[in-house]
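It is worth pausing here to work through a concrete case rather than discussing structure prediction in the abstract. The textbook approach is simple: state the sequence, then state the predicted structure, then interpret. We follow exactly that order.
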Amino acid sequence: MLLRVRSRRFFCDNDDCPAKTFTEQIPGLTRPYARQSSLRASMLDAIALALAGRAGARLAAVLGLSVGRNTLLRRIRAMPDPEIGQITVLGVDDFALRRGHVYGTILINMDTHRPVDLLPDREADTLAAWLRDHPGVEVICRDRAGAYAEGARQGAPEAIQVADRWHLWDNLGRYVEKTIAAHHHCVQRPEPVSAPPAPDQSSRDLQQLAAEAAAARAETSTIVVRTRKRYEQVQALKAAGKGIKPIMRELGLAKETVRKFYRAHAIEEVLATSLAGRPSKLDPYKPYLHQRWNDGCTNVLELHREIASQGYRGSYGLVRDYLAPFRETGAAPPAAAKPPKVRTITRWIMTCPDDLDSDEEAALNNVLADCPHLTALAGHVRSFAEMMLQRQGDRLEEWMTEVDADDLPHLRSFTLGIRRDHAAVLNALTLPHSSGAVEGNVNRLKMLKRQTYGRAAFDLLRKRVLLTA
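Step two, the predicted structure:
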């Protein structure tokens, strides 16, 4: 399309005026010193914000808008920031620029659910400075990171801090898993309805040999060997008087990993879950493998094909490693149902009882009947869930007192963390404010981050997050 435009040209007779001549502009179509139309410029801006550099340039070429990737990036940088305005309820959370190494902070206006800024780190001073530059924040919804708590106290001392309920529940789940791992040895599988004949001595010997072989295989697994090595390294540096951060830098491990090994009183605390094992794709097919092995079929490749035809989707190596002890003992022991895995019991306890099916509810009741500690644990979890869902923050102190009175050291660690951040947790269990909108924006930010590389691209990422909300 070719547009022929006729416009007027003006001259200024004032010798002091720097504009000697200028041309009449057509609103919405032309502007001074422009090398492209306003429509084309707006299309390029939209493409740049959606896809950034290379991907944006490829799409623009398909649409007939030939442009280089660097031009699109310059257009993003040249865009003005949106107005922040007055913020009453602020959401704060971190996100990974480089997972395990570099993190930033996203700030959300909880009234509009739109991001208002990105900070290049998650330090208390950075957040405090931002809050001082933007006064008027009355409520701060945040996770339980100590840096954000301190930054909020420094930058907005009058604001109410509200801990994120999802993070509260997630933190509780981690301590529940640790407690279950510590007591997993006392969990027994429920007896079948019709008990089979008592195994003879040879069957018991085979079961013992197979159990010993499985335990030896677990002890020599890669994750167990690596965990023992890291635990010894961290404990040796701790004995030398070094703290968590120096150990983290020296060993090149994540902070949470070092903290876990640093605070553990024994290696069993960090190995309990690994030794107990995780749910395996092979579990439903183990009775069949035992039967076929005792029938004389000891060809692992053939057995793998048979269970694959029944729906098995795991690897051949998993089958081979499981059957290896049977080759040493000469026969497979009777297939004994194993107790539920640590994570399975954790899921049962952390799930609303109304959402469990009849089989899961029966299995959980059998597990709790075998261990009074887990019975007490399940009761505390359900009480906390009721308190959180019904906003009964006035019960928090009573709940923590009951937990401290039981022999549940991991759960007592959870209450210790609550006491350090008591006001924010109490507000989370009392007030209606939620951080759900923050988590949604963090997920959207992750998709944008995939197209923005390196720490130098933080400004580009910030612009795209603010302007595409």
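Step three, interpretation. The longest helix spans residues 201-219. The mean pLDDT is 81.
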